[in-house]
Structure formats: structure tokens, C-alpha cells
Specification:
By secondary structure, the chain is of the alpha/beta class. The chain is built from 8 helices and 10 strands. The N and C termini lie close together (about 5 Å).
Length: about 260
């Protein structure tokens, strides 16, 4: 595969620095708040959407649904579906969503897992993959974007690998993602992933780095990987000194054909 030409993105560092307080590692209980200015800017350049997903995907009935809140950025031919980490919500992805959409290449969808942000329902980790699958179906059927990349931070990355092993996607980016998270087993799913993958972690975020090593070893084909210094986890990486490099690296990966 060849990499597409990387389109320059202006103002990345300043935008990402403004979002510095917005995220924490999976496993914390308090939901952080994205700076209001970041949310307001994102709201002004995106459109709000609602995604319906079965309240209990395993019960065999579609009578009861949970509504997930999402935002669509841009209108490019390639889809990028961003899955957030815990305890963050979709707003943690807003700066990157805007940077990607600004290239003109991507339609970007952020969303809140059930129980997070403004989505309905309760936090139910066993349904993370069902929520992500519903968001993927929304991109393909409602937004009419057939070529979609899954990009997930921490638990969102674990869910992305599980979903990407059973549904056709253009590729997967996993940032600081556990090999296993609650009922999700990305390590077992990894050999079933056929498309390109990019793994990102921090050197001193030891559990995430060890998971990266396990997942890379389990992959069926060669994958891209990058380990940065420091201990930032998930979307916290976009608030540190490597923000511009990570953003450019992701956009280059999402531009492959």
C-alpha cells in the first residue's frame, strides 16, 4: 500500500494545547470536562446526530433502544470513526476531529458510548462493541461513507479491534489500548484483523505499552507502531509535546490507499 500525500494542518498545536485538561486514563471514575471554548468551536463546525442502538444487543429484540449522541465533522470521502476512552467522552476527540476534517479528505464521526456525555443509557462495558458497531453502521448507511477507519483511545481502541475483526473496515488505530478490557478481548480478536493497523503508546504508560507489544505480536500481518516518551495515556497524548507529530502521523495513516 502507498501512503497518500499528507495535507498540512494549520494551528494544530495551539488547538490541542487548549484542550489539555480533557482526559484521563481508563479506570478513573471522575468524568473530566473539556474546556468550553473547545466544545463551542467544535459545535460551530460540526452537526449533531443521534445513533440508535439496541439497549440489550443480546436479547434478540429491537424494541428497546439507547440513543447515542454524535457529531459529524467534514464531508470527505474517507470515514474516520473516533471512539473515546474512560472517563472521557467524545469531546476529547474534538481537536483531532477538526484537524482531520480540515484536510477536506475525511468525514469524521465522534460519539459518546452509552452512559457517557449526552448519550442515553448506563455505562455498560459489555456493550461497548455494540455501540461502536452501531456508529459504524450509521456512517455507512446514513452518512453513505463506505470506507471507514476505526480510531480508538484506551477502551475505545480495544472495542475498535474487536469490531474491526468481525466487520470490514479500512484500518484501525489503537492508542494506549488494553489487550483486554472488561469483557472485550482484543488479543483474541487481533489475528482476525485483515486491514492495516497503527498502534501508539507512551513508554512509561507500562500497562498500555505491554498491551501494544502483545497485540503487535499477535497481529496476522506487519503493523505500524510508535512509542513516545512520557506516560500520557490515550487522548492525553494530544495535549502534550508530541501532539503535532501524533496528529500528522494519524492523518498520514488515514490517507493510505
Amino acid at each position: 500500500m502507498r501512503r497518500g500525500r499528507l495535507v498540512g494542518v494549520l494551528g494544530i498545536a495551539a488547538t490541542l494545547a487548549a484542550a489539555a485538561p480533557f482526559a484521563g486514563a481508563c479506570g478513573e471514575d471522575d468524568t473530566p470536562k473539556t474546556p468550553p471554548a473547545v466544545v463551542a468551536t467544535a459545535d460551530s463546525v460540526s452537526r449533531e446526530v443521534t445513533i440508535d442502538v439496541p439497549a440489550d444487543p443480546g436479547n434478540g429484540t429491537a424494541a428497546a433502544t439507547v440513543q447515542l449522541n454524535g457529531h459529524v465533522f467534514g464531508s470527505g470521502t474517507t470515514g474516520v470513526l473516533l471512539a473515546h476512552m474512560r472517563p472521557a467522552d467524545q469531546t476529547a476527540w474534538y481537536p483531532f476531529a477538526q484537524s482531520a476534517a480540515a484536510t477536506g479528505r475525511f468525514t469524521v464521526l465522534t460519539f459518546d458510548f452509552r452512559g457517557y456525555g449526552t448519550s442515553g443509557g448506563e455505562k455498560e462495558f459489555e456493550h461497548l462493541d455494540a455501540d461502536l458497531s452501531a456508529a459504524l453502521a450509521y456512517m455507512k448507511t446514513t452518512l453513505k461513507v463506505d470506507r471507514v477507519f476505526l480510531v480508538g483511545a484506551s477502551m475505545g481502541g480495544t472495542a475498535s479491534m474487536v469490531v474491526g475483526a468481525r466487520e470490514p473496515v479500512a484500518g484501525i488505530v489503537s492508542i494506549s489500548s488494553p489487550a483486554q478490557f472488561e469483557t472485550l478481548d482484543a488479543l483474541s480478536a487481533e489475528p482476525g484483523i485483515a486491514g492495516p493497523q497503527l498502534f501508539i503508546s507512551s513508554e512509561d504508560d507500562v500497562p498500555a505499552r505491554r498491551s501494544l507489544e502483545q497485540l503487535v505480536k499477535a497481529a496476522k500481518q506487519p503493523v505500524d507502531q510508535q512509542v513516545y516518551d512520557g506516560d500520557a495515556h490515550g487522548t492525553d497524548l494530544f495535549a502534550g509535546p508530541h501532539a503535532a507529530d501524533i496528529t500528522q502521523r494519524l492523518i498520514a495513516f488515514l490517507s493510505i490507499r
